[in-house]
Amino acid sequence: MIEELLVAVAGAAAAMAVYAGAAARVVKQYERGVVFRFGRLRDDVRTPGFTMIVPGVDRLHKVNMQIVTMPVPAQEGITRDNVTVRVDAVVYFKVVDAAEALIRVEDYKFAVSQMAQTSLRSIIGKSDLDDLLSNREKLNQGLELMLDSPAIGWGVQIDRVEIKDVSLPETMKRSMARQAEADRERRARVINADAELQASKKLAEAAAVMSDQPAALQLRLLQTVVAVAAEKNSTLVLPFPVELLRFLERSTVGPQAAGNETPAEPSAAAVEAPPTAEGEAPAASPATSPARSKPPVSDAYLKGAAHAAEGVEPVGDLTGASVDPAPPEDGA
Q1: Is residue 221 a contact partner of residue 242, using CB atoms and an 8 Å limit?
Q2: Whether the predicted pLDDT of 54 surpasses 70
Q3: How far apart are CA 326 and CA 293, in angstroms?
Q4: Cα 144 to Cα 151: distance, rounded to the nearest angstrom
Q5: SS3 label, residue 129
Q6: Which of 122, 136, 162, 316 is 20 to 30 A from 186 in CA distance terms?
Q7: DSSP three-state, residue 261
Q8: Percent of the chain residues past pLDDT 90, beyond the cut
Q9: For the chain, first and last CA: distance in Å?
Q10: Reduced to 3 states, what is the DSSP secondary structure of residue 176?
Q11: Residues in contact with 79: Cβ distance below 8 Å, sequence separation at least 6, in sequence order
């Protein structure tokens, strides 16, 4: 009798152990357990920890509640300003209602992926190229709203959406590079012109001050010479003041004017020309020839001609004594 009782107790304990092994479940901290009993949803969602179900009757489904990072495949589209682009993005979402995520949609991850691709194409068609490149925050918010509206009914919450990259055709990249280069060149020219204007104003003010104080120009000249000589160059360019040139011009004009007031010496053209033979016309002097104009004569030339004339003795007759013809002979 005792033996039969012990066997029954042992069998019951074994049956309880098997039942407990089949009914025991462990739900992790980042999971929630959804129980279906005979295909009907149980109201209570199993929290993390140890839980029990009815073996053969209940079926437990574990749903991950962590944030899922899902890359959206690159989508090609035409922007509102007719530019072909290729855009890819990434979606961050999580399940907030485990029961709705299992009941409302067959595969919530696949559904979110397809909806993200469709919404991304719609955003590309509604936006300009400049918005895709520089105003991504606004596009991310608009894309998040487009995804969050249907996803909230699936028990899924869209945490954030980010546009990763915008690929442009090579021709468009070159055009944008030329446009940016032209814009930078335009700004550089405007800045340079503004600098020239300011410098010209300052130089005009400096010139006005130097015109009032001529010594300031000389001091500035000395400073320039010191600055150039500091480079240890073999050639030194020294500016020559215009005032010094004017001083030298005034100093040279005075003696020349005084020398011109002295009486002129007799020129070589005034020397008596030698007599010619009878019946011949006197040769025209180069100084008195009407065909040739008298060249300008300097003071030095006149003085030299006068000294030469003083050293020449006058000659009365250069032709010699006249010879009478011989009388003819008789009978000739």
Answers
A1: no
A2: yes
A3: 47
A4: 10
A5: helix
A6: 136
A7: coil
A8: 22
A9: 218
A10: helix
A11: 85, 124, 125, 127, 128, 129, 132
